[in-house]
Amino acid sequence: MTTLHHLGFPRVGAKRELKFAQERYWRKELSEQDLLDIAQKLREINWQNQAKENADYVTVADFTFYDHILDLQVATGAIPKRFGFDSQKLTLEQYFELARGNKDQFAIEMTKWFDTNYHYLVPEFHKNTEFKANPSHYVKQIKEAKALGFNTKPVIVGPLTFLWLGKEKGETFNRLQLLEKLLPIYTEILNAFIAEGVEWIQIDEPALALDLPKEWLEAYNYVYTELAKVNARLLLTTYFGSVAEHAPLLKSLPVDGLHLDLVRAPEQLSAFTDYEKVLSLGVIDGRNIWRANLNETLNLLEPLKATLGERLWIAPSCSLLHTPYDLSVETELQDKKPDLYNWLSFTLQKIKELHILKTALNQGRDAVAAELEQSQLAAQTRAESKDIHRIEVTARLAHLPENADKRKSPFAERIKEQNQWLNLPLLPTTTIGSFPQTPEIRYARASFKKGELSLEDYETAMKKEIEYVVRRQEELDLDVLVHGEAERNDMVEYFGELLDGFAFTKFGWVQSYGSRCVKPPVIYGDVARPTPMTVRWSQYAQSLTKKVMKGMLTGPVTILQWSFVRNDIPRSTVCKQIGVALSDEVLDLEKAGIKVIQIDEPAIREGLPLKRANWDSYLKWAGEAFRLSYMGVQDDTQIHTHMCYSEFNDILPAIAALDADVITIETSRSDMELLTAFSDFKYPNDIGPGVYDIHSPRVPTADEIEHLLRKALKVVPKERLWVNPDCGLKTRGWTETIEQLRTMIDVTKKLRKELA
């Protein structure tokens, strides 16, 4: 019989119950016990759904209150010493302070989980880091599931991936040196799982999909020889890319099974067909929302079933935390776009698809003939749909002007024209774009969508919020203002709603980090901009002030990365379509007198293929798409871009090739670490390193901001240095925002006098 299992499940609940409970807890409106009860209920629902669709094992220990890598830091005693917390007696309040910071300590650094839009909290390793096991968070979940009668399979990120994802702090050393101290802790944690009677333990090693150094690869044999000594069966799990080049190594490891992601890397299967243990195949996409063609999947699996027999397991390609919970609640989409609805599959539909595959493999296709016919029909109607391809979009992309993605003049000439009319002081101050999305803003938007507020009244409410933002910025004496984005629900969703080729769900939320959830648009067809999207809002904001108003757009790569993207044409083509559509908006802003325009690209690093061999082709088309987004602008129009929560050291030539006049980057959590690379590279254009972390409610001290700015001045010429927060301010409250910005501006003015 073929075994069906899952690698992980969404944590936040079908209706974001965990998010709302967390935020109520943080506001002191919900007790700790109530939060714990809600979390337990969500876990139970997840297990019930897996069992209902015939999973042989329900996955446990995948639930987290904030981040699974933070949980692992707690479980191994590797939380940062600077907080002064005891990992063995960590309270829930202290756990959240690790993630969000407190009055004494900034939060643990956050960055992207491989090439996804999920953020993990980066472990801080010191040469003298000591580890101590505390598996209680995991064991609690195993006990709960077993008490409900479920057959459990706990999951934990493996020790080499854990170390790889961390950073060395303090004295220079190689964090791989910590492995010898860490490994006994893992053994202790696994033994705690075994004490609860588990048969299989899933150990995730997605780092194997990267270009790991030789010494790290060689450590796998040592690690799994030691871990295999525990009295349980180990399933080594890989995902997000091919591990075919490591096939000899992986086949030799003393584990009991191996998982491969056949959605992202179907070609790797040929390297493992002679694998003699359990082979788990990820055949349902855990990263995207398109319905699988189950007949084609069975064409792949049936010969393997004949060869492998009971050693064949089937699963999603990776954890389903990256997909929305349930398609069936999207009744509005079903009514408006029934064909598109029929092409989609969310978490609950994906586990049903796996159930169908398992039944077909164990009982024959006739047992699920109706389901297979429906799957085939959906694939056929999508392939033949007239709603996807637009001749005019294809023609425009094919006939772009020569050098369409190049500015008229080099930066050294452009900046002179820009400085002449901008007339900004030394160390000009600005923000990244958004200001607090207050309850009043959200209420007005919700009321308008429900039809309870007229368009006129909604726009009046948004204009009132914009004026408030402008006046507060004037009072603070910021140099380049923004309109605050009151009218925007999300930096990608807002634009997707106004571009052709996009569709939207109502409940398609996925976790980005902690309680932060996003609802990615669905790019199902060719992309074009039918009408201006931001111009009148920016014009209105500019009419309120004599200061410079900055236009705000989201860039093509980020729109692509943070959407569920069609998989019937190359991603590069979709990205360039978005870039060309955005260029119409940029030129309209320029004509309207908005001549400082920020095109945010926080996701450009995130989109990098995991293998370096594929980087150049990606960076080439991603850079071209970004430059196409501002094609045709005049030299005196200043193009800004913003990037955050990624490492850029290894792609600085590509960042420079974007040719933005000003780049703003997140640097506060890393203590300006990133700027050293920009200095070594001699980044040619203006830079605005973030001087405080906006994901924490704490107000930075003047000394902290001054420290960061002085570090920045050591590597960036004062004439090219801008001052700004790390990111947008939409998630903050007004009181803390004003205090944070006032501190930033006061310190800036102090340094201006000194530098003058």
From TrEMBL:
Domain Cobalamin-independent methionine synthase MetE N-terminal: 5-307
Binding site for Zn(2+): H642, C644, E666, C727
Record keyword Transferase present: yes
Ranges for domain Cobalamin-independent methionine synthase MetE C-terminal/archaeal: 427-749
Cofactor binding note of this UniProt entry: Binds 2 Zn(2+) ions per subunit. Binds 1 zinc ion per subunit.
Residues reported in the UniProt entry to bind L-methionine: I432, G433, S434, E485, D600
Binding-site list for L-homocysteine: I432, G433, S434, E485, D600
GO molecular function, one term: 5-methyltetrahydropteroyltriglutamate-homocysteine S-methyltransferase activity
The name this protein goes by in its record: 5-methyltetrahydropteroyltriglutamate--homocysteine methyltransferase
Organism listed in the record: Bisgaardia hudsonensis
Source organism phylogeny: Bacteria, Pseudomonadati, Pseudomonadota, Gammaproteobacteria, Pasteurellales
